[in-house]
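Below is one such record:
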Amino acid sequence: MSEPERLQKVLARVGFGSRRVCEDLIADGRVQINGAVAELGARIDWERDRVAVDGVDIGVAPDLVHYVLNKPAGVVTTASDPEGRPTVVGLVPAEPRVFPVGRLDIATEGLLLLTNDGELANRLTHPSHGVEKEYLAHVEGTVDGGGLRTLRDGVELEDGMTAPAKVSQPEPGVLRITIHEGRNRQVRRMCEAVGHPVRRLVRVRIGALRDASLRPGEWRELSSAEVRALVE
């Protein structure tokens, strides 16, 4: 069993500011331990206790890691592959073991999170939270006004109507599409439905997270501020 730690120390470690700032969070009644409002001086066992700030569960284990990877095309979003193809887990450190948050199909490029933080992963993937994902889609042909309206308003797919999306065409044949659903190959299927199959697809944003500096195959750890922004 882990040694109990002071709550304000744990909050500071996971990015909520200095210990003084974290003490103020506790004093204001914004922190809960196992559903009850925490008091100053409280200690927690990170293996057993659930901690929430403003009602949102946060990961507090000391060995949590959060990576952002620029996934290249041709790499599968799994921990292992029976066909021997390269995997996203093989592009980041082997220890501690991490898992991808959500999926990008083998041909899709761009930002992907990998972590061992189950609380954050659940928050980012659960439909009720509606986390936005933004893509650049290079499609065949130029999409006319009617096609753009259809993409924005919702497209009838075999598994039902898509939710409204943010869609623009910054240049002919290039769409900027923001969705908050997580259906399989959704952006590709939406574009196919309006007659403009995707030639290249790149995810450029997950929630508040962007990083245009990462080259394909490169990764880095998220800062505490970035993790907190994703939690919020």
Summary: The longest strand covers residues 198-206. The chain has a mean pLDDT of 91. The helical segments are 7-13, 19-27, 118-125, 145-153, 186-193, 224-231.
